[in-house]
Amino acid sequence: MKISVVKNILDANNRIADENRALFDEKKIFVINLMSSPGAGKTTLVEKTIEALKNTYRIAVIEGDIQDTYDADRIAKHNIPVVQINTGGSCHIDGNMVRETLPSFNLDELDLIINENVGNLVCPAEFQIGENAKVMILSVPEGADKPSKYPLMFQESSVMIINKTDLLPYVDFDMQKAEQDAGGLNPDLNIYKVSCKTGEGLDQWVSWLSNQIEAFKQQ
To answer: Could you tell me the pTM of the whole model?
Structure first.
């Protein structure tokens, strides 16, 4: 019975996510679902991405947290539309939560929506929200064993960003293991090594995202 309940929840969510996706397709909005454990650098990456692309694309952000508006307040300083989802204890955002935020945006004036999911390496990978691509961040201080421990996150993602590379001299992180284990789970995974602090490698991530947006617009 428990398995059936979980399946029903996911099926219901997927139907709503498909409806979100149809709306985003109609409006030609590229949508990413950004996931990571807490403290990996999601919000900082969002800020750096906005800085790089805001003069080219019209961007909005959906911030997911259990409570508080700290991250949304950070994003609002960049003068782009942002909505906060407080899940009240849920470890992820889902399709219905995203759908409820959409009236807050003028969808005719957007090219890109970044959904910053709740910090968690398990639940967010299971729930579709209507995204074009899942993007996950693995930060160097977390260790290289995360692909082996949380495989679904890496299997479901289009991009893995290895963040905080400026800390490599100070922590025990096996870059080769992280890349090999993640690539073994998902041979199509795009891997970018970045430091949001120094800016190293961010141009590769920004280039990938820009290319995805342009290709989507041509469909």
So the answer is: 0.94
